[in-house]
Structure prediction request, 670 residues.
Amino acid sequence: MATKTVELAVGGGREMGHGGVGAPSPLAPFDIPEPDIGTERMLINIGPQHPATHGVLRLVCELDGETVTQVVPHIGYLHSSFEKLGEYRTWNQIVPLTDRMDYLAPLIYNCAYVMSVEKLMGIEVTERCKVVRVILMELDRIFGHLLWLGTTAIDVGAFTPFLYSFQQREKIYGLHESLTGARITTSATRVGGMMADLPDGWLDQLLDFLDNFPKTLDEVHRLLTGNQIHIGRTQGIGVISADEAINYGFTGPNLRAAGVPYDLRKDRPYYDYESYDFEVPVGEHGDCYDRYLCRMDEMRQSVRILHQAMARLPGGPINVEDPNISLPSKTDAMSDMESMIHHFKLITEGIPAPEGDCYMGIEASKGELGMYIVAEEGGTKPVRWRVRPPSFVNLSVIPKLAEGHLVSDLIMINASLDIVLGEIDR
Amino acid sequence: MADDNSSPLDAVEDGPVTSGAAEGADTTSTGSADDHPTVAALLEKYPAEVQRFRLEAGDQYVVWMNPTRSHEILAWLKDDPDQLYDMMSDVTAVDYGKGRPVEVVYQMYSTPHGRALRIRCPLPLDALEIDSVYDLWKAVNWLEREVYDLFGITFRGHPDLRRILMPDDYAEGHPLRKDFPLRGRFSRAEQTQRALNQDVERFYLAEDLGRGAAPQEVAAATAGPALPSGDPAAGGAATEGEQA
Prediction:
């Protein structure tokens, strides 16, 4: 009987530890046959209210001992049907819906949405507006990655990086606030431009942030990159190959960590990204550690882009000078008859769109963020507004990544994907 | 509706708008097929399946296709060495209302050739079915589930086609269809009553937890003998890390 052999072997204390003396290491390869004790598999429910799921995500795991044999994610707890709501709103009224999706990098969503509408309508925004949007998007890439960095470090037991990164996030909150008046729900963009131009002193505030931020990044780098605990928890965990990563729909840092140098800023450039000097960090193993390295390096590249964008920021108007698209100034609307009429028409009717559809994919902090818009001839509201959420597709891979790993690794894998449930559930 | 709080949004509760003749969409092609190699190749290889193509938003080519052979054509687009659309970015659907067909939209990108293409397959309202492409791109797993959930389009051959964003027992239909009122089909009173009468513990029953997992192996695995406990190298590395 198999059990007898096992009893004798276990008596040596190699597995149980306390029975035997001088067992070399509990990690030594187990050279006796696997005990036939007929363990029953167990179903464990994680979430939806659990800090380690990074939102209202529910994971139902089937466990064999500590090993995950199967994961079934359940989502939809935050579903608000933003896409349906958008069908009842004019183009500019949709902007506030967009930042509520990825509230960890709201400005990227604001920009992506209006970029798609502008492309559909054939509006060319001003040079200043382009550079300002590049600044805002890169700033929020750092913003999103910092949250990922802090919370993921906490998941593997490191508390300090969380404090460091949230200290820096607070500075970006300040930048959001002085630009838009809000810390999270920014709603900063409008079709054809921005809600407002950069306020006085904003660039100095940004420069101040950029001076200090790389130092913090270096400190976190010293804390985590060579840290044995961190390496042990992340290397070789949740591995995916390059071909599989593409086939499973990975985008963003998750895809690049697997060795695919696909970055929409380089491959399908928008807003003159091809003229900025930056590199796309690419991993090679496709595990949690490479995802960490990619995001860390991406923040450094974003700092580079921010410096270049600030240097080239041109003057001039921030909104397109077309009275059928941009609102007139308040003074004009109150004193000039024609401006008042344009103001009235824009507010009550909105901007008419041509018939057609437009898909605009941009590189958000989490991957390819696609905004797909379908309009009718002269429509001031979308027939269909579809958001291609990067973390929705990234999360759908978790059953494959987590299979065969420990429960604690499942938490790490989930964290390393950098999900935000507001965007997954929409 | 037994709802006394009237609001301007009540207009959107005016029920189904599917009646009436299908308003014909513009069927002309725009742009030049020569500008996009894939469009030209599709016209040459599957002339009967391509309904029309259009140039949208300046530089985006859209091809309307018959849904009957969609799987075959999409497989060709993925595997043909001149096309190699290895990245399926998005699957979604568009409902125009007014009895027009619901269109399934595929956003594809070819990383080797650096080309993007959009395929749209119109499905008549009485036959909302199309072949799943899960066997070609694993990325569409949740995307097709979402389209099924919100539009009611059945993807033939999808291994795990069930609701994803709405609850499993959602009884009001498919929210993104144009005939679905913004506030839902049930009155507020009915919705509240259903929420209150819900058996919450139902979601935590053992037999319910693993439901719909793809592929369905829960029952077989539970009965099986001891199985290898995953990847020993990975498990070992994690333990080592914790003890370091």
Observations:
- The CA atoms of residues 95 and 102 of chain B lie 5 Å apart.
